[in-house]
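Example for tutorial group B:
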């Protein structure tokens, strides 16, 4: 795995555990950390040992408390656009990854932290999690895809309310809005839940999982015909050995053994 100063990475049992490790700054995302995420995700796709990713933040208090305000306070109009486009590109790499990526949200998921969690395929929150897009407090708006993903996830009215007020919401409210899949009392239990879900996903055909990612993402691309993407992806699955294995195993009344081919 690529060298990282701000992210702890450990592969265990096919899961890559990524921990944003700037606890004294509540794991705020600085430019260097973002680039480390880019480098890691470049490698995740090709690394056969890695079957899934879990993102979390160091410590109990914060997942990621946003972009690093000491850096964004220095932006000008030209580099602000690049700043946003760069973050959007890196978060799209997470969203488009063909291996499942779960955000395990411990504590604050604010600004870029909430945006990173929303770019993951699922969110599992610890009961102390707090979600928010407080950028208006700084005179800005979300820039890493948050205006789009939050609206898709919670709907227009609530997205407007959250982004216009900058209010934080707790884990239970986030779950009732569809922003979070599961809420668990402790980080340990949340991790166990994430691992349980990934274990199940990792027993399925990897190509089919990647096609689910593409088809779900197609819903959010206005120019893409999602039904066509689905039909093409379905056809791609049928070309795979795993399709033969899955259907044969059912008919032969045995468990399938998928090879990802
Ligand atoms: N960028 C840079 N540093 C940050 C940060 C951020 N987004 N969020 C927290 N920090 C730093 C603080 O400056 C502080 O550093 P210091 O000890 O060197 O002074 C440290 O993390 C602890 O934060 P602190 O504010 O003292 O903790 P708190 O418990 O009182 O408050 C928050 C926690 C999350 C409510 C508060 O830190 C906050 O509002 N952060 C900014 C959130 C935000 O606006 N994010 C969107 C950015 S676009």
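The residue assignment follows.
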């Amino acid at each position: 795995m690529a060298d990282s100063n701000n992210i702890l990475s450990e592969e265990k049992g096919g899961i890559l555990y990524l921990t944003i490790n700037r606890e004294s700054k509540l794991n705020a995302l600085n430019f260097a950390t973002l680039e480390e995420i880019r480098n890691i995700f470049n490698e995740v796709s090709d690394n056969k040992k890695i079957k899934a990713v879990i993102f979390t933040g160091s410590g109990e208090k914060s997942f990621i408390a946003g972009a690093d305000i000491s850096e964004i306070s220095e932006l000008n109009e030209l580099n602000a656009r690049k700043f946003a486009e760069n973050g959007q590109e890196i978060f799209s790499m997470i969203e488009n990854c063909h291996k499942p990526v779960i955000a395990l949200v411990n504590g604050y998921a604010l600004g870029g932290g909430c945006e990173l969690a929303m770019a993951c395929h699922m969110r599992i929150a610890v009961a102390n999690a707090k979600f928010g897009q407080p950028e208006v407090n700084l005179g800005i708006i979300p820039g890493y895809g948050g205006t789009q993903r939050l609206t898709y996830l919670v709907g227009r009215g609530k997205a407007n309310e959250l982004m216009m007020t900058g209010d934080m919401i707790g884990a239970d409210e986030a779950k009732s809005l569809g922003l979070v899949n599961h809420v668990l009392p402790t980080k340990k239990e949340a991790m166990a839940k994430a691992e349980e879900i990934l274990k199940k996903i990792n027993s399925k055909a990897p190509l089919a999982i990647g096609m689910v990612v593409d088809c779900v993402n197609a819903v959010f691309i206005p120019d893409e015909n999602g039904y066509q993407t689905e039909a093409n992806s379905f056809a791609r699955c049928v070309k795979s050995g795993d399709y033969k294995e899955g259907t044969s195993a059912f008919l032969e009344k045995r468990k399938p053994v998928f090879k990802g081919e």
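Strands lie at 7-12, 15-20, 52-57, 62-64, 101-105, 108-110, 122-126, 130-132, 168-170, 182-184. Compare this with the pattern of hydrophobic and polar residues in the output above.
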